[in-house]
Specification:
Blueprint lengths: L2 H7 L17 H6 L5 H9 L16 E9 L9 E4 L3 H9 L2 E4 L3 E10 L4 E12 L2 E13 L8 E4 L3 E2 L4 H4 L3 E8 L5 E12 L3
Parallel strand pairs: 3-10
Antiparallel strand pairs: 1-2, 1-4, 4-7, 4-8, 5-6, 5-9, 9-10
Length: about 200
């Protein structure tokens, strides 16, 4: 697979008729827009769009993706497939040593992320799975639109349920995953790689 193929695999789907909204506004600017509309003000407050929400600090990345987790009702108590994306050693470990996912079970991908400043919109999670260099699956799920949390707390997003493949052929080999969090304008907030294999048990 070429770098061009990787770029196309990880590009967000285009939305017909969508046009970028122009230069991004700060949270304060959004908070002050239509300030006389009470219902709109309440809705914006629910997104963390309130004057001074960023404390005036608009430097650094707009979004920090904190963790990726696989969650399944079939997973034994105490078992966790949890990747801390701020831990470089753990990232390397997940890239080199595949985690085991039980075959033929339902599971969800869950991520936590923090919005540092500004408003994010059209943000999505893209996951491309390859085996022996050939793409076998692509998942693209919307996160939605968010503002900085008033208390600085992270957001959690559970994506739609997936089902792991099953069978002897599916269990042979390693699956390489490239994950990316990107918005409609192509701004990449996080990009990482990890591996898994399928087994009869977790």
């Amino acid at each position: 697979m070429s770098a061009q193929d990787d770029h196309e695999d990880l590009a967000p789907s285009s939305t017909p008729g969508y046009k970028p909204a122009g230069p991004a506004k700060s949270t304060d600017e959004y908070a002050k827009m239509d300030a006389e509309d009470e219902s709109l003000a309440r809705w914006k407050a629910s997104l963390g769009i309130v004057p001074g929400a960023t404390g005036g600090n608009a430097s650094g990345p707009k979004v920090t993706v904190l963790t990726l987790e696989l969650v399944s009702p079939s997973m034994p108590p105490g078992k966790r497939l949890h990747l801390n994306l701020q831990d470089q050693a753990q990232l390397q470990e997940f890239k080199k040593n595949p985690v085991t996912i039980k075959e033929g079970v339902e599971y969800n991908v869950r991520i936590t992320f923090k919005v540092n400043h500004s408003i994010i919109s059209g943000v999505r999670y893209i996951q491309v799975v390859k085996r022996a260099g050939v793409r076998v699956d692509k998942m693209e799920q919307m996160l939605g639109s968010y503002g900085p949390h008033p208390k600085g707390e992270p957001y959690t997003k559970n994506f739609d349920t997936e089902e792991s493949p099953s069978g002897m052929i599916a269990r042979s080999g390693t699956y390489n995953v490239r994950s990316r969090v990107v918005d409609d304008d192509g701004e990449v907030y996080a990009d990482w790689e990890w591996c898994f294999k399928l087994g009869k048990e977790w």
